[in-house]
């Protein structure tokens, strides 16, 4: 299904792009500053409550609209792959769901975004390298400290050796407090010589 079947082309032109990939002072960078060491962090779109991006991500996450997710991923890749700060990325990893939650939903929305990205950007994907080993409760209504407590031990690496010396791009659908991505990054930071960057579809 083409993207215009999921959202009109006039709306595509109106997507609230952040365009801050080469700006080390962008709003996503500020989310993680002083919390975890990242090579770069950015987002494709601005998330506003009740806005177009929220409705699109709701369709992806809860309505099974994976075609929309694939096209969003392609557009994310096209938007960031020419950025100097992301140019030497080696590996892309989706933020994982716990297997129980992924089975209930039928897919991981962040992996759908990655699958779309890989259609435009020939990166190596290690889909099962980063594992979610704790089934944490929903993050939506938690404060920053509560979210951090909820995810700090939730992630595990299957094989650290596979990521030694790599520049890894972590991908998620939306960043709010950044606690989940921080938990992933801290798990990855155990790997010698690794560089970690973050890209999300949207930033709240």
Describe this structure in words.
This protein has 8 helices and 7 strands. It is α/β, with parallel strands linked by helices. The chain has a single domain (3-203), classed as Rossmann fold (3-Layer(aba) Sandwich). A 5-stranded parallel β-sheet has the order 1-7-6-2-3, with helices on both faces. The mean pLDDT is 89.
Query: Taking all residues together, what is the mean pLDDT?
Result: 89
Query: What is the approximate shape?
Result: globular
- Regarding quaternary structure, what we see is single chain
Question: Number of helical runs?
Answer: 8
Distance between the termini: 28 Å
- Percent in strands: 15-25%
Helix- and strand-based class?
alpha/beta
CATH class: Alpha Beta
State the domain count: 1
CATH architecture: 3-Layer(aba) Sandwich
Q: List unreliable stretches of 5+ residues.
A: none
Helix-strand blueprint:
Layout: H1 9-13, H2 27-32, E1 40-46, H3 52-62, H4 66-80, E2 91-94, H5 99-105, H6 109-120, E3 124-125, E4 130-132, H7 144-151, E5 155-157, E6 167-175, H8 179-188, E7 195-203
Parallel strand pairs: 1-7, 2-3, 2-6, 6-7
Antiparallel strand pairs: 4-5
Helix pairs in contact: 3-4, 4-6, 7-8
Offer a concise description of the structure.
It contains eight helices and seven strands; from the N terminus they run ααβααβααββαββαβ. With 204 residues, it is of the alpha/beta class.
Name the features.
alpha/beta, single chain, 5-stranded parallel beta sheet, 204 residues, two-stranded antiparallel sheet, 36% helix, Rossmann fold, 8 helices
């Amino acid at each position: 299904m083409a993207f215009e079947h999921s959202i009109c082309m006039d709306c595509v032109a109106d997507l609230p792009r952040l365009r801050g990939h080469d700006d080390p002072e962008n709003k996503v960078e500020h989310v993680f500053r002083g919390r975890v060491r990242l090579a770069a962090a950015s987002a494709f779109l601005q998330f506003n409550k009740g806005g177009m991006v929220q409705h699109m991500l709701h369709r992806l996450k809860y309505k099974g609209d994976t075609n929309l997710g694939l096209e969003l991923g392609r557009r994310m890749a096209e938007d960031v792959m020419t950025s100097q700060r992301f140019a030497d990325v080696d590996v892309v990893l989706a933020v994982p769901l716990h297997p129980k939650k992924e089975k209930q939903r039928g897919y991981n929305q962040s992996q759908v975004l990655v699958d779309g990205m890989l259609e435009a950007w020939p990166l190596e994907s290690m889909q099962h390298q980063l594992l979610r080993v704790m089934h944490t409760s929903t993050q939506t209504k938690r404060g920053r400290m509560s979210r951090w407590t909820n995810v700090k031990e939730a992630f595990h690496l299957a094989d650290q050796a596979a990521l030694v010396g790599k520049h890894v791009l972590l991908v998620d659908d939306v960043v709010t407090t950044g606690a989940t991505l921080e938990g992933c990054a801290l798990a990855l930071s155990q790997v010698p010589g690794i560089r970690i960057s973050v890209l999300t579809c949207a930033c709240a």
